[in-house]
């Protein structure tokens, strides 16, 4: 999955490849940019890069000396063809250099993933122990330096098209803790996923069906993917701020505007973001913020989307009413009113109609399943569920707003 571009404070200043050579000892074999670190400074730091104590192998070591910070993990990888080349292990460190105080967490993950790649490639392709290692490693650290700084990720064909290193910079401060995904949730994509789809096998299969309208269960069915995998993929998109989820948007849904609308009145940047998001047609003038604000205000006392569409006619003002709701849900401006049916404790078989028997059999009358959940689980249309349950004397309907 693509990452985020590091801030100026967190950008990489240099990438070093340091290794233990049988003839020369600890050696700075490559650095990008060239001549970043002078030999005098390297001599001061070399024992932090390749440590004498094996207990420190595999451990993150951060130094803050001179005017920069170094982040590295001393590593020892056994050679798969030690009999042929006479050497049993490679001892090395790929060191990332940043400004003092830069966030080390994203780079620790990058380095650990890189070491796991190197270990696998050595076992399968003699990556470290064969001839040609030098040019490959220089290409890798060059790609890390430019790719992470410029794009937040890098992708390197190491040996052939099937042996690829993919690394991304992920700052947890900019990530969203993903919720549990329900079968009825609809993923709303808020960023271009084409490059990300090339990275993730599940997303690659799912990508053609992501239209901001299909619920998760239907996406799994259409893509022929396991439902659990699809949910994990959606959670990953949410974590990287590439998507969010909403309940199915229908014209029969009731929405309420929240107090969050007031905060946008003071935020011109968010107003512009909203205008761009809800605009229906690029060929016509953008709607004003006042028009959009008044549309949101129509939800003040709770109103069905159908009523807004018929009476306010947002399309006449170049506003896409569906995207108006999406943006409102994303920013907490709107909340959806859900219905949760609960069966009476006194219900008995004699009172149960054939229609109601299916609901009881599937255990969806417990107050934990919304109408949306029931529609997806039983593969029924909303109209049927409403007709069966809304006026049933043995069913109590609890109405709750989104949390």
Describe what you observe in this structure.
The chain is an alpha+beta fold. It is built from 16 helices and 14 strands. The protein is 38% helix and 21% strand. Strands 1, 2, 3, 4, 5 and 6 form a 6-stranded antiparallel β-sheet that branches. A hairpin with a 2-residue loop joins β3 (61-65) and β4 (68-72). The longest helix is centred in the first third of the chain and has 21 residues, at 105-125.
Count of discrete alpha- or pi-helical segments spanning 4 or more residues: 16
Which sequence of SSEs, written as H and E, runs from N to C? EEHEEEHEHHEEEHHHHEEHHHEHHEHHHE
Largest sheet properties: 6 strands, antiparallel
- Distance N terminus to C terminus? 29 Å
Radius of gyration: 28 Å
Q: State the total count of DSSP E strands.
A: 14
Low-confidence stretches: none
Structural class: alpha+beta
Helix content: 25-40%
Q: Based on CA inertia axes, which overall geometry fits?
A: elongated
Integer average pLDDT: 88
Q: What fraction strand?
A: 15-25%
Give the structure's gist in a few sentences.
With 403 residues, this protein is α+β, with helices and mostly antiparallel strands. The chain is 38% helix and 21% strand. The strands form four sheets. Strands 1, 2, 3, 4, 5 and 6 form a six-stranded antiparallel sheet that branches.
Primary descriptors:
403 residues, alpha+beta, 6-stranded antiparallel β-sheet, 16 helices
